[in-house]
Design a protein that fits this description.
It comes from Mucilaginibacter pineti. The chain has 16 helices and 6 strands. By secondary structure, it is mainly alpha-helical. The protein has 2 domains: 197 residues, no CATH class; 112 residues, no CATH class. The strands form 3 sheets. Strands 1-2 form a two-stranded antiparallel sheet. The protein binds zinc ion (2 copies). One zinc ion (ZN) binds next to helix 10.
Amino acid sequence: MLHIDLQNKWVAKAHREHLKYVYCRIRKKLTGETCGDSACGVCAQPSHIIKGLPHSLDAVLTDRNTLETLIGGSPDDLQNLNELIWFEMIPDFNWDEYNLYLPVRDKELKKLSDDQQYLVYKYDRFYRIQLRIIDYDTWFQNKDNEPRYDAYRLAVNLDRRTCTYCNRIWTTTIKNRHNKKVMRANYDHWFPQTKFPLLALSFCNLIPSCTVCNSSVKNDTNYSLATHMHPYVDMDALSRFQYSYDFFRSTNTYQIKIKSGFGDTKAARTYRDMKLQDIYDAHHAELIDMINIREAYSDKYIERMMLNFKDAGLTYEEVYKMAFGVEYLEDHYFKKPLSKFKKDILTELKLAR
Ligand SMILES: [Zn+2]
Ligand SMILES: [Zn+2]
């Protein structure tokens, strides 16, 4: 897992823009008010005011600070606020009950047991109103291509070129010659949308990732801040595990493995649940290339290349990038697939320092 630094000036700018426009959107849906900025594409779009909001929810969300926290707060803040809002709406809210409600919420009432009907009666109205306020799929995905802030714009702003979880697959944002949006990163909801509908537009809950990590690997697995690393929280996420490998002489085969610090169960659980070890086992070819280089050129490979290009005055970092096609500095790993994997293996082979 890569970390994303909110202090980085591009990420901070993306955060500010996200906060501004999502705030405009939700406030307009709740109160009809606009921000007064004539250039605001979000306020310029017509939207219906949501009627029949429970008073408790209305009071919480029309408070400027609370709404800003909901959109731009830290993962910790989001988790706390989400819980607080549930308890505002349903004073005897209970997570166990709620977890039983979720799988039956779309079923026909008459097919449910009395207990299940009770849960639907208790939770359904409050659940659905959250979906209506957030409206992630229709509004944020912006399939109609309205000229305004949306998922694509966030991807452009964040400019994360590889998947935050695996650093294996390109997630570049691309438009074609006709200005048509061709591709962008997926957003994995770290707090899953199904369980946390109110957090579906929260900046720190939108993790730019690849389709594999978003849909098939992480899916709706329950991650919690106590048990799993979070890209916006764990700034040391990268250094807490290393890719390595085993060689089995009897079968002449390799196996990629991942190591973390002794007792670091949080790191171990994170890469285990993201299935990083299995996924990286697809990269034997790259592993063998690096081992071959080591055998052919000793550990002075980069130094020798630097000597060869002496007149060009290239730095160690520049030669490394040229030689292995990946980024050298940790903060730049997100720009090229496999940067973390290769650096770990090259370091183990003593081909990189
Ligand atoms: Zn606005
Ligand atoms: Zn991925």
